[in-house]
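Problem: given the chain below (319 residues), write out its structure.
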Amino acid sequence: MEAILNEDIQILKRIQANLESCILGKMDEIKLLLTAMLAGGHVLLEDVPGTGKTVLIKSLARSIEGQFRRIQCNPDLLPTDITGVSIYHPKDEVFIFRAGPIMTNILLADEINRATTKTQSALLEAMEERHITVDGETHALPEPFLLLATQNPIDFEGTYMLPEAQLDRFMMKFSLGYPDEATEMKMILSQSVIHPLDQIQPVADVGQIRGIQQRVKQVHLDDAVAAYLVAVTRQTREHPAIFLGASPRATISLVQASKAYAMLQERDYVIPDDIKFLAPYVLGHRILLHAEARMDGATVQSILQSVFQQVRVPVRLEK
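Solution.
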């Protein structure tokens, strides 16, 4: 196991280096993206335009030689524009399935909140079940399958709120944000001749990623750490400032993400710090605060900090 783990870590380091060459100064966000991919989860990127979301996703697809498709969401987009449609072939008198862009390894749903709720709902089955159903026939999605959706947090005209059921299916939600001054200066100089994305070379393939995803499941989760994780998610349901706490799906997502992040940290076991780092990104978008708490200035992040202060950290772990 140790030799295989070392080989997996080297692959992940090469992928991470590729992404860091395209998106400067965003090491934590890159690790979050890789964590979601290894854990088999989906990501919602909420950010203003021009921060590098599309470049980050494209560089990941090129690094693993994965198929990449992009959907530009708008109110005219239909569910069949995503999933595909069965077309009648008169010569053979049969229906032929024409696959939509969802039949890919990495799917970018750009500005997902501009699509209607009906179209957004077309993604639910794919996100959870890893297959789609068109005209009564089920079609399995390629493996790995990773959905990365983006939304603009400041432009509300012509947008539709994501339903809670769909938000809960995203393993993580985070943003890239603006770079600092030194990083932005370095970015300008690095792109003066050629865009870093054009220099990205594959360093893995989808078969290797599938193998690593299976081995992530074998990362050890001590009973004490598991109890700590469950206590954190359960506390979100009991906190007086929280109206809607984390779901059982959120608990499972946090387990899967913690195992994947542990591997990125070159460990074959999960520690409490993994859970503390990931919880804001895995639980934050699934939690709703009471109106009174929001009026008092409370935020999801501040409430999560108080949750961690109330849950005792295990001090002795068994590998």
